[in-house]
Write a structure and sequence with these properties.
Chain B: GO terms for molecular function: hydrolase activity, acting on carbon-nitrogen (but not peptide) bonds. Chain B: Pfam families: Amidohydro_3. Chain B: It comes from Arsenicibacter rosenii. Chain B: This is Amidohydrolase. The structure holds two protein chains of two kinds. Chain A is of the alpha/beta class. Chain A has four domains: 285 residues, Alpha-Beta Barrel (TIM Barrel); 93 residues, Beta Barrel (Lipocalin), CATH 2.40.128; 120 residues, Urease, subunit C, domain 1; 244 residues, Metal-dependent hydrolases (TIM Barrel). Chain A is built from 26 helices and 45 strands. In chain A, strands 21-20-19-18-26-25-24-23-22 form a nine-stranded antiparallel beta sheet, with no helix packed on it. In chain A, strands 1, 2, 3, 4, 5, 15, 16 and 17 form an eight-stranded mixed beta sheet that branches. Chain B is globular, with a radius of gyration of 23 Å. Chain B folds into two domains: 147 residues, Urease, subunit C, domain 1; 290 residues, Metal-dependent hydrolases (TIM Barrel), CATH 3.20.20. In chain B, 53% of the residues are buried. In chain B, helix 2 links the parallel strand 6 and strand 7. Chain B contains twelve helices and 18 strands. Chain B is of the alpha/beta class. Classes of the chains: A alpha/beta, B alpha/beta. Chains A and B meet through helix 14, helix 20, helix 21, helix 22 and helix 25 of A and strand 10, strand 11, helix 9 and helix 12 of B. Strand 45 of chain A pairs antiparallel with strand 11 of chain B.
């Protein structure tokens, strides 16, 4: 035992620290060393642009003193001859959690309290901090940092020398610390503290209820930035808030944002734009899927080299569960870095996201094989990250004065045969691959005891990867088991097949001879020698021509039925159709409609097609304006921010998902525009996104420019959590319809005071204004004040007459108008009051009975409201029903006997009016947007289906083209399946097909609380 | 005559100020003849300007304009359409009222093996949903239990009757089995996603089912058994052919295995229910003469890459493959009134014609459920369970049901929705409504 301890101490004591321990006492005598090393005869890659051959690198005390081909080596230098070897700057990873504390167990996703407990509405972090636990800019990675030799070693082996570490927890995560991966005291390896600031959309381990949605995260971050500004301008006189103080201090540092995917990058950048910050954004490795938009952000990126596993697609039926998008991403992910580089985007690479860090090199080489240049790869691991954190004066290259962080390699760093031999960090050596003391490759005459006619062949691609063979005769070739450690050699060989048994030989290298003694199987001790007889003629690997792998095309959106080319607007003339104008012309027979520049140019008879126009024969067909869905939840990542009674601050435009299959499915049902609403989990929901269903466009392009702002309100059972199964969770105010009224008064009174405070402040004379503390910008109250100022409009989820009446009275008393009641299933009971107030109604055609508050819902509702003069639309609130809103509109003919023309307006012109878009949409009139649907039949007929769906003159759905599209899709699937089968046969690890069902949202869905597939529950929760 | 009948109906509706369903209809008092109608027989045949005569609840004659109507009260329904009562299989109508109110839900019993559970006795003829589906032409509904692996037995109910004994057309027509799926749904608490993975406990579940069926079959081979096993008693019909085995399964592999299982277990009549992937195993279904009750067509494709209209065109695919298809609204009780529109959708998406689509909610359903001797088509000797629609009943605009007869009984067309409509129409008319906006 004592000996063991001594050995350990010896190991520690032999290596003197590579840095000065000036402030630390010393147990023993002083051991200051010059740490002066020269590496000679090396190929030195000083930086990605500069390679020196036969050069020397001189380092002293952990810093590069000289590099070049003409370096004078001072006396007292340890000289290492690196002939045939290369030196590169050590690599840098900017997205590391090295040395950071592990997040508390079970706290993933901020739901550590479990599903059963009461929601925690207030922060449980004690101290003068921000109100929300997920905002913790005061966290300083340097205070948390603890070196960890195991993890450091893992990264050193990959060639990394420096990392930027920060705790990956929360929406505002504080400042990052730049550390080296040396095994030294933290004092030495922290190169710089507070290097950077870090943000994300994920609340991390926060147990607080808010936010529970991505749009809530965005809103929270926005508000925090505004609060910091307020704090700086005088808020600090009102309160002490270390979080806001910290947020202000972080201002100006390189700011990093962790985004989950390509659309997350766009979202993060949008936030940055609002606050004049250009985030450096960590992406998900799928940037190639929206490369133009990603480039458009001008953000520098941090990109992972983690690639999805192939799927096991051997079973033809099971393989159906793997989507085209998943298969294509499997194929294309390795090309991502190359695409990003090719687009001219500045980026750094990271090991983050790898299932296993040891996959790093294999994956990086794959990325190079798929089109990333070696030079770009090296930049992305050295100079680019160094510049991003403004540490290029310290790290990233091997220029004089920089930290002596470098790696010694056997070959080109990116070559498959390369071995990283040593990683020097701050001038201290870490051996990565033990180098053989000599190259043993060659042919030897082997004598074992009295057997002398043996040969030993030692071969291998490199001196450290050897293969052995003992040749007894031309026909008998034996593979022995050999291990070599420094100059010691140990070999076991089964020499004689007739007398089985292992001969064990141990010995050493003596010059070019190997020798020693050993035991025959029978225990007889013998001596052995292997005398080198010749060089091994290593067959050079025939150089495979490096061919970039062939891969499929990116499609927009990146999902089945996406298009390789984004569709374009056309000039077209639709001739001789039955045209439902929704105007005074009514339903015109044998009419023509001319579309130009995305607009309806002309409506009439016998129009002439301009040159180059596409002529579409509408004979026997019906042409209508596109269906507008007033109440939709498709194409969104999330629906409800239910963490608070009011979430007026959240914007659905922050979470538009342009890659949702339901967009295409609804185009196939004639829908061209939708209001994407917040859910109904709280009395005051979030701000709507008004979109057109431009399949393939980015979220930003889908948004309708210049549209008025809308906001979702909600009443009744959902708001008061009437159908929550767990009584423990019923603590949020309000729990009754009585309380709902008070929520509104409270919020609107506060908004009015807030608005007045701003008005007062803004009207101050310049001098006084400069001296005054501006009111605190509150984005929740902003939205509510906009309602009071008639600049934002309410769509209110509502069912029973009492609550409808209540909100009308609240609005009346505050002097604004409710724009629309949605669902409004008892609207027929108060239709007179609604008409008087001037509110519209957007309803289901025939839904009822799914909960108590819809027990009096009747399918005649729309007709009754319409006859009282209310603008009525029929909406879906359901991804499926939206595909046949024409049928739902037709039900108003059955129930209430509306005319077909009026019925049709319920899904076109009337929703356009409710959304204040009727000057641009909702009817076929010259000058309006060319959002058109060509039907095979009367659009209200059950037998009708769209043949073409056109948005702004661009055909997004074409029944004629549909067969080809489906065939292309199945061909592409087949190609990828064959490729995956080949990959599996080649030994690639595969994953089982897991059928991920997309969640379908209705307005009551709170993220995570209800999972897709629980259909009966979904039906109840409309 | 027609006017008189209609007036009586209207008066009845007007006179009722209380919020109750209309009373059950009285037995047919005398022969009735509907003349001048477009009669959709349900066999695929359409009789233009046809006549249908029924007495004591039974169709006594059907044919062209020359069909004698002697002795019958003649109601001229020229320009209108007569249809066999639509049949809604696999439904929870009568078993649930308000989905969010547990007290009103009676279709899902606890336990795993519940063949003895009978939906019949929970069927509430006073459900306010029933008149609303009847008034769109759905005159028969199969009350179906859900839950567990073997859910219980269903019964075929008329949408008219004072109580379940009155309303029932066929008691205990079949046992319902939720097939242990090839995939099971797994909820991931880490990322709150749901994935379908291969069901690791499936073999065990199937083995235990097989044991249950083997024992039930052995039990059924004996006439009387002591002590009585309620579960096995309930399963006797499966082995004699007296009752169907309705198996819910969607995935193609499940469909094949479930059918193989049932055959091996000695089940005589097998019906697949749900069957989202039936198109994949259409020839298997045809070869084995297995009929299918499809899930509501008005659903989304199950997978991203599936044809966007796959659910809509499913009936057409199966029809062309020679599979007997019925359409259902499943447990979506109140939506059942839209059953005719599912048939309309099927006709719009590939079923050869409207009459074939109509069969999927009449004759085919009757045949599958073993009630085709009395309902499902308008043929002499069958029940006068039929309705008159203003126009094409498969289209929303023209599905305006003007007369309903169930076993010849003249059914009151009032329902909660019409009552509320009338009440509020009257209210606003009394107030002098605002000018109708254009």
């Amino acid at each position: 035992m004592k000996k063991v301890v001594l050995t350990l101490l010896l190991a520690a004591g032999l290596s003197a620290p590579g840095w000065a321990q000036t402030t630390f006492p010393n147990n023993g005598v002083a051991d200051e060393r010059p740490n002066l090393y020269a590496f000679t005869n090396a190929t030195i890659v000083v930086d990605p642009q500069t390679t020196l051959t036969n050069a020397t690198l001189l380092i002293r005390q952990g810093v590069i003193e000289a590099v070049g081909t003409n370096v004078t080596i001072p006396a007292g230098t340890v000289v290492k001859d690196l002939k045939g070897k290369r030196i590169y700057p050590a690599l840098i990873d900017l997205d590391s959690d090295y040395g950071m504390p592990e997040p508390p167990q079970g706290a993933a996703g901020g739901r550590g309290r479990g599903m059963g407990g009461p929601p925690q509405y207030e922060s449980n972090k004690k101290g003068p901090y921000y109100w929300n636990q997920a905002v913790q800019p005061e966290v300083s990675a340097s205070l948390l940092f603890k070196a960890n030799s195991t993890k450091a070693d893992e990264l050193r082996k990959l060639g990394f020398g420096t990392v930027l570490a920060h705790p990956h927890d929360g929406i505002a995560r504080g400042s990052g610390v730049l550390v080296t991966l040396a095994d030294e005291r933290e004092n030495a390896i922290v190169l710089r503290e507070a290097v950077s600031s870090h943000y994300s959309f994920s609340k991390g381990t926060s147990t607080q209820a808010y936010p529970n949605s991505p749009m809530g995260s965005v809103a929270l971050l926005r508000q925090a930035f505004y609060d910091a500004d307020w704090y700086k301008k005088g808020g600090n006189k009102e309160q002490t808030n270390l979080s806001l103080e910290a947020l202000n201090k972080l201002n100006g540092l390189p700011a990093f944002f962790e985004a989950p995917d390509r659309l997350g990058i766009l979202r993060a950048d949008k936030i940055g734009d609002e606050f004049g910050v250009q985030f450096i954004i960590k992406g998900g490795g799928d940037e190639y899927q929206r490369i133009d938009e990603v480039k458009g952000t001008n953000a520098s990126l941090i990109i992972p080299v983690s690639f999805p596993q192939a799927f096991d697609v051997e079973d033809a039926w099971d393989a159906d569960n793997v989507s085209l998008a998943e298969m294509k991403h499997w194929e294309m992910a390795p090309a991502n870095a190359g695409v990003v580089a090719g687009a001219g985007i500045n980026f750094a690479l990271t090991t983050a996201g790898l299932r296993n860090k040891t996959e790093f090199w294999a994956n990086l080489r794959k990325a190079i094989e798929y089109g990333l240049s070696e030079q770009k790869a090296l930049e992305a691991l050295t100079t680019a990250p160094a510049k991003l954190i403004k540490a290029d004066g310290q790290i990233g290259t091997l220029q004089k004065g920089k930290v002596a962080n470098f790696i010694i390699t056997s070959d080109n760093l990116f070559s498959a045969n390369n071995a990283i031999l040593e990683n020097w960090i701050q001038g201290k050596q870490y051996i990565v691959t033990a180098q053989p003391t000599a190259d043993l490759r060659g042919t030897y005459n082997l004598t074992i005891g009295n057997r002398s006619n043996l040969k030993l062949n030692i071969t291998g691609k490199s001196a450290d990867k050897l293969e052995y063979q003992v040749v007894a005769s031309d026909t008998i070739k034996i593979t022995p088991k050999v291990s070599v450690a420094n100059d010691l050699i140990s070999m076991q060989v089964q020499l004689d097949r007739r007398n089985p048994g292992t001969t064990r030989l141990t010995g050493y290298r003596d010059g070019s001879t190997l020798k020693g003694d050993g035991d025959l199987p029978n225990g007889q001790r013998i001596t052995w020698t292997a005398v080198r007889a010749g060089e091994n003629v290593a067959k050079a690997d025939s150089v495979r021509p490096v061919r970039k792998p062939e891969i499929g095309k990116v499609i927009y959106p990146f999902i089945g039925f996406g298009n390789p080319e984004k569709p374009k607007a056309e000039v077209m003339l639709i001739k001789n159709a039955t045209v439902w104008t929704n105007e005074t012309d009514g339903i015109m027979q044998n009419a023509d409609v001319l579309v130009q520049n995305g607009k309806i140019a002309q409506v009439g008879k016998n129009l002439t097609a301009p040159a180059g126009a596409k002529v579409i024969d509408g004979t026997g067909k019906h042409l209508t304006s596109g269906i507008i869905d007033e109440h939709s939840h498709i194409a969104l990542y999330s629906i409800n921010e239910g963490g608070q009674t009011s979430s007026a601050e959240v914007r659905m435009s922050d979470v538009v998902n342009s890659e949702d299959a339901n967009i295409y499915r609804q185009l196939a049902g004639g829908v061209t525009a939708s209001q994407l609403l917040h859910g109904s989990a709280n009395s005051i929901g979030g701000q709507s996104a008004l979109v057109k269903l431009k399949w393939g466009a980015s979220p930003e392009e889908m948004l309708i420019k210049g549209a008025d702002g809308f906001i979702k309100f909600a009443l009744g059972e959902n708001v008061k959590q009437a159908n929550y199964p767990n009584p423990n969770q019923l603590t949020r105010f309000p729990q009754t319809r009585m309380g709902v009224e008070q929520v509104y008064f409270d919020h609107f009174y506060r908004a009015r005071e807030y608005d007045n405070a701003w008005k007062k402040y803004n009207s101050l004379p310049a001098k006084e204004k400069a001296a005054a503390v501006p009111p605190r910008r509150d984005i929740e109250l902003d939205a509510l004040a906009e309602i009071l100022n008639k600049k934002r409009f309410i769509t209110c989820h509502s069912y029973v007459q009492s609550e409808i009446n209540m909100l009308l009275k609240v609005a009346d008393s505050l002097g604004f108008r409710v724009n629309t009641f949605t669902h409004i299933l008892e609207g027929y009971k108060v239709a007179d009051k609604m008409a008087k107030h001037g509110v519209g109604g957007s309803s289901f055609a025939d839904w009822w009975a799914y909960k108590m508050e819809v027990k009096d819902a009747i399918p005649y509702n729309a007709a009754l409201m319409h006859r009282q003069g209310i603008v009525v639309s029929i909406n879906s609130d359901d991804a499926e029903m939206a595909r046949r809103l024409n049928q739902e509109a037709a039900k108003t003919v059955e129930y209430g006997a509306l005319s077909e023309e009026e019925a049709w307006k319920m899904v076109t012109l009337n929703p356009a009016k409710l959304l204040h878009l009727d000057s641009r949409m909702g009817s076929i009139k010259s000058g309006k947007d060319a959002d058109l649907v060509l039907w095979n039949n009367n659009p209200l007929s059950i037998y009708a289906r769209p043949e073409k769906t056109i948005i702004e003159g661009t055909v997004y759905f074409d029944l004629q083209d549909e067969d080809r599209k489906r065939e292309d899709l199945s061909k592409e699937r087949a190609r990828l399946i064959q490729k995956m089968l080949t990959a599996k046969a080649g030994g690639t690890q595969t994953q089982r097909p897991t059928f991920r069902r997309q969640r379908m949202f209705h307005c009551e869905d709170i993220e995570g609380v209800m999972a897709e597939g629980e259909e009966h529950q979904e039906a109840e929760q409309k | 005559m027609k006017k008189i009948v209609l007036t009586i109906l209207t008066v009845a509706a007007l006179g009722r100020a209380y919020a109750q369903n209309p009373p059950a209809a009285k037995p047919q008092a005398g022969a009735i003849a509907l003349t001048g109608a477009t009669i959709h027989v349900g066999t695929g045949q359409v009789i233009n300007n046809g006549v249908i005569v029924f007495d004591k609840g039974i169709i006594t004659a059907i044919g062209d304009a020359n069909t004698p109507t002697t002795g019958a009260s003649v109601i001229n329904v020229s320009g209108k359409h007569v249809y066999p009562g639509l049949i809604s299989p696999a439904a929870t109508v009568g078993l649930q009222e308000y989905a969010s109110v547990r007290a009103t839900l009676d279709f899902n019993e606890v336990g795993v093996i519940n063949p003895n559970i009978r939906a019949l006795v929970a069927y509430n003829t006073d459900s306010e949903v029933i008149p609303t589906i009847r008034n769109n032409g759905v005159l028969l509904t199969q009350a179906m239990p859900l839950g567990g692996t073997i859910s219980g037995s269903s019964s075929i109910m008329q949408t008219d009757g004072w109580n379940w004994e009155d309303a029932v057309l066929k008691k205990d027509d079949g046992i319902w089995l939720n097939w242990p799926g090839y995939y099971s749904r797994e909820f991931n608490f880490e990322d709150f996603s749901v994935g379908l993975r291969k069901n690791s406990r499936r073999e065990a579940a199937i083995n235990s089912l097989l044991a249950t069926f083997s024992e039930a079959k052995a039990y059924a081979a004996q006439k009387t058994v002591t002590p009585i096993n309620l579960k096995f008693e309930a399963m006797r019909g499966l082995f004699s052919g007296a009752s169907n085995l309705y198996i819910r399964a969607d995935y193609a592999k499940d469909i094949i295995e479930a059918v193989k299982f049932a055959k091996e277990a000695g089940v005589q009549k097998i019906v697949m229910v749900g069957a989202d992937e039936a198109h994949r195993v259409a020839s298997f279904l045809k070869d084995n003469s297995i009929p299918v009750i499809l899930s509501p067509l008005h659903r989304l494709p199950n997978r991203q890459d599936e044809d966007v209209d796959l659910p809509y065109k499913m009936p057409g695919i199966l029809q062309k493959a020679g599979v007997t298809v019925a359409l259902s609204y499943n447990e979506e009780w109140w939506r059942t009134r839209n059953l005719p529109f599912l048939a309309g959708t099927a006709a719009g998406f590939g079923v050869t014609d409207r009459e074939e689509a109509l069969k999927m909610i009449t004759a085919n359903a009757a045949k599958i459920m073993g009630v085709d001797n009395v309902v499902g088509t308008l043929e002499k000797g069958k029940h006068a369970t039929l309705f008159v629609s203003k126009g094409d009943a498969l289209d929303m605009r023209t599905n305006v049901v003007e007369q309903v007869y169930i076993q010849g009984r003249t059914v009151d067309l009032d329902d909660k929705h019409k009552r509320l409509y009338k009440i509020y129409k009257d209210k606003y008319e009394g107030q002098k409504p605002l000018a109708e906006k254009k």
